[in-house]
Design brief:
about 450 residues; mainly beta; rRNA processing; repeat; NLE
Length: about 450
Amino acid sequence: MDAAQVKIRLFTKEEDESLHVSDAPLYVPVSLKRYGLSEVVNHLLEKDTEAPIPFDFLIDGQLLRTSIDEYLVQNGLSSEAFLNVEYTRAVLPPSFLGSFNNEDWVSSVDVINPQSVAATSSQVPITDAKILSGCYDGIVRTYNASGQVERQFVGHSAPVKAVKWVSSTRVVSAGNDRQVRLWKSGAEPVAVDDDEDAELGKTYAILEGHKAPVVTLDVHQGSNRIISGAYDNTVAVWSTIQSQMAAINVHADEDKYLSSASKKRRKMAVQDATLRRRAPLSVLDGHTQQVEGVAFDARDASVAYSVSQDHTIKTWDLYTGKCVDTKQTGYSLLSVLPLAGPSLLATGSSARHINLSDPRAEEATSKRLVGHTNFVVSLAASPDNANLFSSASHDGTVKVWDVRGEKPLYTITREGADTKPKLFGVAWDPVVGIVSGGSDKKLQINKGTDIAK
């Protein structure tokens, strides 16, 4: 045993009474790292004869990823210091569950499951989790968890860049054809809005207003709102109920922007003369370059965020349509994710790192997470742990992060890949796991990192 020791107090904030040890301080060797401290806690919990529980440790709110001695040196503390050390169940590494092929590059993914639907009484129940994907072939697809395509949505005349579940019976997509499309994906027991004449798998409303490719979407079910961001430097606000938006006529010169193949695809997809075209509720103008990411605030549906290649994070008041805050950074921002638990905003950048910031603070960056080696283009929050989120990058990996640390907890690579494909989208679902897609034309599923039991 190392001669140098430090005095610590072990405590936990978890409600599980079986994880509580005495609050009495104890001395431990400064050479201990996470594994050694985990052995100490298991011994104090008298779990030596059972399967040991892996723990993580936090000092002053930061994950311990070094020895205690290194922590003391880094923070200018002596071995006579008294440390309050919080322990919590460790996160297990994600395991590969499977992958299934797609027809083209997968640009965006989303997941819906029976649990999330059951929590919303207005939605039609579903029996199995479903995966939604948008692809460069212009087609939106839904899959079951076994990888079987259940429905294809044909209508976009260019690559689809963003998809979201609106409800258990509706999806929304956006693409390089400058359109946002609402689709009917499932049967509804009663008519909702006035779309009872829309066929399953068909477009029941085209949302038009952007003048350039639409690359990002977010949906807020409680307020029936959709926001989109586009390369025309704007953010648009829409309703999930098409009758709440003003009708527009088909532009006569719309087809001049399309190739012959695109015109044919549109003609086949838009055969119904009654197909509705709707204008946005509002257009938020303020960015000076392409908008790459949009998101509703995690707590307040009247607030939204957008990030752009103009290096800024903008906060929008959706009631007034005004920008209420702009944070300037030194690099193009490509993705955004509000984290409700720690009240932080995560943004992925072209500089290969992820920034964490407090939306209420003046500074654009409070912490920088480094680990990716290429653009960080998609972010997804953990459904089970408020401090965890995942990121997808053009470096071919998905990384799992804890906001209390500075390095990734785990890195997910593409199973069986000889090269590193670009990844474009990631979603994290409590039932299915972590779903990612990219230029390898595959959807890959890794089991979500549940708290170790």
